[in-house]
Amino acid sequence: MAGAGKHVVIVGGGFAGLYAARRLARAPVRLTLIDRQNHHLFQPLLYQVATAALSAPDVAAPIRRVLRRQRNATVLLGEVTSIDLERRTVELDGAERVPYDYLVLAAGTETCYFGNDGWRAHAPGLKSIDDAVDVRDRVLMAFERAERDSSPADRARDLRFVVVGAGPTGVELAGALREIAARTLASDFRNIATGAAEVFLVEAGERVLPGFPEAMSRQAKRELERLGVVVRTGERVQDIDGDGVRLESGERIEAGLVLWAAGVTTSSLVRDLDGEQTRDGRVLVRDDLSLPGRPEVFVVGDLAAVRRPNGEWVPGMAPGAIQMGRHAARMIADDLREKPRTPFRYRHRGLLATVGRSHAVAEVGGRQFSGFAAWLLWVFVHVFWLVGFRERLVVLFEWAWAWLTWQRSARVIVRPSSTRLRTARSVDS
Amino acid sequence: MAGAGKHVVIVGGGFAGLYAARRLARAPVRLTLIDRQNHHLFQPLLYQVATAALSAPDVAAPIRRVLRRQRNATVLLGEVTSIDLERRTVELDGAERVPYDYLVLAAGTETCYFGNDGWRAHAPGLKSIDDAVDVRDRVLMAFERAERDSSPADRARDLRFVVVGAGPTGVELAGALREIAARTLASDFRNIATGAAEVFLVEAGERVLPGFPEAMSRQAKRELERLGVVVRTGERVQDIDGDGVRLESGERIEAGLVLWAAGVTTSSLVRDLDGEQTRDGRVLVRDDLSLPGRPEVFVVGDLAAVRRPNGEWVPGMAPGAIQMGRHAARMIADDLREKPRTPFRYRHRGLLATVGRSHAVAEVGGRQFSGFAAWLLWVFVHVFWLVGFRERLVVLFEWAWAWLTWQRSARVIVRPSSTRLRTARSVDS
């Protein structure tokens, strides 16, 4: 590998890992960034791929391209299968062993079904491009099935969607599904009135957007209901099968599609690390973001449990991840210049969540507001955070177009077979 | 279903089927268009998805959207599994039966391995969006494997591509692969010189672009070789496995990826139809494009074997398919007005094939030319034939961008697992 000096291994090319790598561009180190995917994924817009507004490549930038001019950086496509803190090596795909002087763990989270892995087949999560394309196929296929259903009951079921979990992703998905049904597809079908499609948003907590201030939750709920989303808070899911969900209250919701936005857990990598962890598997790091007793190992992004000055957790969103990645990188650079470590200080930029078309809730600098202005802010922030110049232009274009025409440009079912029409239920006409 | 009068069933939403449906917009019929996919695929640009220049949705338009305002048209997503010419019904997904008064068969062709279906797993074809995304994954993964290969032999193998079949698709793929290797990825890798990637184009016939005039074949071959493609004509493939191909000459080419552009066969649907067929399964239709003895059944597009006035076959490209689809539709409309059938007349628009970046070969109105002017014509023709206004803008934008920057915007590996790195071959570093 190119470069000289200490070897920094970064595991994960998300916001934390990528910004750590960039921050080390001028440091006298050689660094290796390892990711299971070849692309940095702009997670905040992934739901737009799942709802056919954007194409997969719009929200993904090849990590190699992002770092192509950073000569001290090597990108490896592969999975880190274990970490040997004693020998200071990571194991790649169960074979190759990569030694490190510094290790930055930024592997992020994965969808978690709280021990009910059987639900995975019926209620896909939304963490990767492949997830998003799969969800897009399933959403569009539900309408296709309904168009061919002969019994009203089947049709009603296929036009009913359940989104489990009312965090930002769940709220965004639920709003977008109603928008697709009521507007995008309105004139495309002959046998069904797509506008009649029902969208249920089920949340175990007492309110939508649990991580947000209560006023924002109220505004989001009001807007969701205006869009026609049925919001069920304080309801736990007891079971999920191919035909819907059963809630702990005993209520059964027959649905053509169930989407899972309820839970994530940290990469299995960190679970075997010694040291304290939170219930959801995040690592309690030292104030410089290093692993207790391992100053050469940093844990950042969604893997790290870090408190804000006000005692709350740093929210698991892009700004926190970017700041942590940069801080870990700075600590490494400071070590090399024999400067003392400094504690990580989270600068809270605010909170943003969009609810359907042209409505969002925002909290910036303590001030809260919602509606169109918040949505414009949301568009601005998200588009201009997109990694890479090109993405910005295309995404802006696709959005402008979709917004003006109510169309969604990415309405392609890639694998209809994998989400087959239930031919068993079709009969002679 | 909406509409009144005779029921026209169109099987296939490609160029022939879609243009047949549009031509019947004002006819006093109700029509049902059935396709296995929810989208019309702009086949001529599919190789651009496979080579990461365009995203899948750029070259696909939802059939429902294209026909949304045509009130006499119903679109069904499903597979026609058999045809009952006596009872005048088509069978949908082995279950539902759809009766017709007129049937337009436009189901097109599928990839054919000439009885060696075992090759399918090692040498994907390029007929669907799913194919293209799979090929894109495999192409990008070949470079990723090479970057991690420790032995020079493995690296050389993973950087060697074989394209089987030198029709327009094979020629376009081979050229684009060299372009990706030599330019797009040039500065992205650290352990390999992507420019050293070898691309073999193997053709059983005596020349590339066999369907084209000889002068055009010569120009295409010259340009391919200028791009660094190794052209092997008059060479049959004897066997294909996971590590490369063996030619009948005995030569073995070890390759990281083999792509199949060598053969297509007509949809199995028409194979059981009575009446004469060509060796590749195309149906010899009457001069009005109807099935002999079945005036209510039309066979159009790649399914039909039709001769030009000069005795040659109508080439299996978009213009012929569109003209046939329109003619079949006109025959149906004429029947309803009790006008006599008229023979199909193919108006030859010319031949076009692009070879890598900014070079193409063209034959228009008997005149042949090649180079940049031909490429501009190719861009113009293809972009402005794209179904739907939006697609045009995005594709133009993506092309302009890719052309100016040598970048390819769709470099996303959707399913790295499905095309896994051969970890068996990686060793301790």
Account of the protein in words:
Two copies of one chain form a homodimer. With 429 residues, chain A is α/β, with parallel strands linked by helices. Chain A folds into two domains: 6-36 and 78-111 and 265-336, FAD/NAD(P)-binding domain (3-Layer(bba) Sandwich); 117-262 and 351-415, FAD/NAD(P)-binding domain. Chain A is built from eleven helices and 25 strands. In chain A, the strands form eight sheets. Chain A has a six-stranded mixed beta sheet, with helices on one face. In chain A, α4 (129-148) packs antiparallel against α5. In chain A, 55% of the residues are buried. Mean pLDDT of chain A is 89; it is low at 422-429. The interface between A and B is large, with 67 and 65 residues.
Explain briefly what this protein structure is.
The first copy, chain A, is of the alpha/beta class. In chain A, 30% of the residues lie in helices and 24% in strands.
What are the key terms here?
four-stranded parallel sheet, about 425 residues, FAD/NAD(P)-binding domain, homodimer, disordered C terminus, 2 domains, elongated
* Strand arrangement in the largest pleated sheet of chain A: 5-2-1-9-21-20
Assembly form of the protein: homodimer
Low-confidence runs of chain A (pLDDT<50, min 5 residues)? 422-429
Q: How would you classify the helix and strand content of chain A by structural class?
A: alpha/beta
CATH architecture of the largest domain in chain A: 3-Layer(bba) Sandwich
The rough form of chain A would be described as: elongated
Count of strand segments of chain A = 25
Strand content of chain A: 15-25%
* CATH fold-level label of the largest domain in chain A: FAD/NAD(P)-binding domain
Cα Rg of chain A: 22 Å
- Integer tally of domains of chain A: 2
Number of helices of chain A: 11
Largest sheet of chain A: 6 strands, mixed
| Relative helix content of chain A | 25-40%
